[in-house]
Amino acid sequence: MSFPLLTHIYIHGETGEGAYVGSSTIGQLTGKNDFAGYVYMAPFSDLFWQFSKEKDYESIKRVLGLLNIRYIFHNSDTRIYDQTFPGRPYSTNYVRKFMPSTQKAYEEFIDNLASEKLFERGFYRVYTIADDWYLPHFYIPREVSVYEDDPGVSPYGKASAFFDKTMIRPPVYIEHKACVLLFSSEICDQKRIVTEEGNPTIQFKKVNPAKYRINVSGAHGQYILAFSEAFHKNWKIYVSSTRALSEGAHIPVNGYANAWRISPEDVGGRSEYELIVEMTGQGLFYVSLGISLMTLAGFFLWMWHNNRTQ
After folding, report:
1. Distance between CA atoms of 160 and 131, rounded to whole angstroms?
2. What backbone phi and psi angles, to 5 degrees, belong to 128?
3. Residue 300 DSSP SS3
């Protein structure tokens, strides 16, 4: 996550007279998700600003945990916040209305969220967020909260319908219509479902941005596997890379993420096994990417050779 928070990324020019406006350069350069502004934090955008204004740091950490945010990047340059851009993207009736009003105030704000400073050079600092409420990319919830969605609410305020400070860690939030795809209406009508009994232990590894391997051990009964990545119907889950689970077992959770119900019948009654989570339809993309990279490498080799021979 990048601070100061805004709508788009602004990077102050060397002369102090210009700035880059666009999507996150950290995201572009590293391939990592970067929550750099209000619009990127949907459906928690409104709640995050509200909690920031109230300095409700525990609730902020819960929100960041649900978004799988582990690190904070802070550009502490006063030229980009204290001395410049009195209007967009840091206007007093917009960003500064909810977020810290100065770089000094941002330091205090971050100190209440971070557990350790990992890096500092010049104006740039990287912190790790206290892991009280951090949720990994894949996790098994101990408690399910069932809620009713309000279609009239903005996408940036959807979390106000389900966020609950009293939930047991780690929680998962499921809209009622999605819940009945996994459980009975009677169970979903309870609103809160404890799922910790018989939950297995998992370890996962990222193979590439479109494929993950999850090793499961100690499974006894059905459970929910949550995946903190933007929901898409093409995320598929396989048992040992041979058989896909039922489409009905895949639902959106936490207002944006994915989840699957895993039952003993899905895995042949085994207590230890491997699951594959993969974005289907990506094979051609990786082939094309490989060709593009080889072409680019060939171009640079050709340029290098020409420069040497001139």
Report:
1. 23
2. -100, 140
3. helix
In the chain the first and final C-alpha atoms are separated, in Å, by 47
d(CA 193, CA 178): 14
Cα separation, 260 vs 257, whole angstroms: 11
Tokens of 145: 């909260």
Helical ranges in 5-56 per DSSP H: 25-30, 45-54
Instruction: Name the pTM for this structure.
Output: 0.84
Rg (CA), the chain: 22
Distance CA 259, CA 138 (A): 9
Inter-residue contact 67 to 255 (CB < 8 Å)? no
Q: What is the pLDDT of residues 57-103, one digit of tens each?
A: 999 999 999 999 999 999 999 888 887 766 666 777 778 889 998 99
- Contact status, residue 138 vs residue 216, Cβ threshold 8 Å: no
Predicted confidence (pLDDT) per residue in 265-299, tens digit? 999 999 999 999 999 885 545 544 544 544 444 44
